[in-house]
Every structure is written in structure tokens, then in C-alpha cells.
Amino acid sequence: MVTFFKIYYRQLKEIISAIISPPFCEHCKIFLETRSVFCDECKLLIRPIVSHPLQIDPGFTVPVYALGSYNGILKRLITAKKYSNLLASHQLGQLLSQHVAWKTIKCDIVVPMPLDWRERIRQGYNPAYEIAKEIALVREVPLKSLLTKSQDNNGSFFTVNVGLGQQLQYARKHIVIVDDVMLNALALRKAIHVLQVLKPASISILVGARSLVV
Predict the structure, then answer these.
(1) Which residues have a Cβ under 8 Å from the Cβ of 91 and sit 6 or more positions away?
(2) 81 confidence band (pLDDT: 50, 70, 90)
(3) How far is CA 15 from the centre of its chain?
(4) Following DSSP, what letter does each residue of 56-119 receive, concatenated?
(5) What is the pTM of this model?
(6) How many separate domains does the chain show?
(7) 25/108 same-domain check
(8) 104 shares a domain with 63
(9) Of 56, 80, 83, 151, which has the fewest CB atoms closer than 10 Å, so is most exposed?
(10) Residues of the domain holding 28
């Protein structure tokens, strides 16, 4: 019954959205028959990259999945997000939920990369959370904000905001960390170190775009 209402709500939302805001390609601006971020021709402009592991420690790597490299239309979409364009974050979430090789991704929980309070005020919202929310809705997996980001004199650091009594429920789970872009991976490495306290079965990274040199 719950699933029926979720499907009905999603279809009703799509109908109302199509009336209020007809679908068009975010790159070339042509109108589309069905809602999509980009038209088929513009999707071909995304430069796909093979999943490449990120080394966290010697002997410990995690897979990184991305739509493509950080350039072209993906870079413009992410740059739009940086200027408080909430829609751009939702569009990145749609692209990631539909155009990444999900059959190869082990995912029980999606975890957005957090912002500290200063970044949150400056941005107005957390883009990674909005992206992860879209992915969780489409892929039907739980979204959990397991991380908190703070700053001190030594830079940024992360903590797990899960009590000791609740940590066991995340043990042996496949966690996917979601962010908009991976350029130097410094913050992601810190976050993964912290999440290891939960003893997950695996940790993967899912981003809209990534640098080819990381």
C-alpha cells in the first residue's frame, strides 16, 4: 500500500510539474517530450570515465563512481549549484540515479557529505544532501546523515553523529558517500576514516564529476 501511494504521488508530481514547468534540456534549452536533465544529443557531450579506486591508506582503496570528468556541461551544472541553484542539485541527483552503473554498486545506505555551519549559511542548503535525497528516492534506499563537519585551527574534521547504541545497525552495511564533485579527495578521505568506526561491509563514493588526476 505504501509503495502504491509513493508511485501515485510521484506520477502526480510529474504531471503537475510538466504543466507548470515543461521539460527542456538544461544545456541546449530545447523542449523535450519527457522530463530529463539533458537531451540525448547533449548527453553525448558528457565525457564518461571508468570507475577508478581512491587510495585511503596503504592497502585500502574504495571505488569511485562518477557521471564523468569535471568539465563541459557537467562542470557548468555543478557551478550553477555553487550559486545556490537548488534545481541543479536535484538534476545531478537525477543523472546519478539513472546514468551510473548501479548493477556494480553495492548500496544499502546513501550518506551525503556534510557542510559545516558556515558553509551551510553561505550556500543556503547542502547540495550533497539534495543530490543524495534524489538518489534515495529513485533507487529506494535509505538516506542517513551520519556525518558532521566542523572546523578548528587545523582545518576541517568529521565526526560520526551516531550513538554507540545505534552503531551496530550500520555494521556490515554497504555505505555509499554522495558528493557533487571530487577534486582533491582530502575531505572524502577524512570522512571515510571516520565512517570506518561503524564497521561497514564496504564504502563507495558517488559523485557528479571528478578530476582525472585524483
Answers:
(1) 26, 37, 77
(2) low
(3) 25
(4) EETTEEE-EEEEEESSHHHHHHHHHHHTT-HHHHHHHHHHHHHSS-GGG---SEEEEPP--HHH
(5) 0.81
(6) 2
(7) no
(8) yes
(9) 83
(10) 1-45
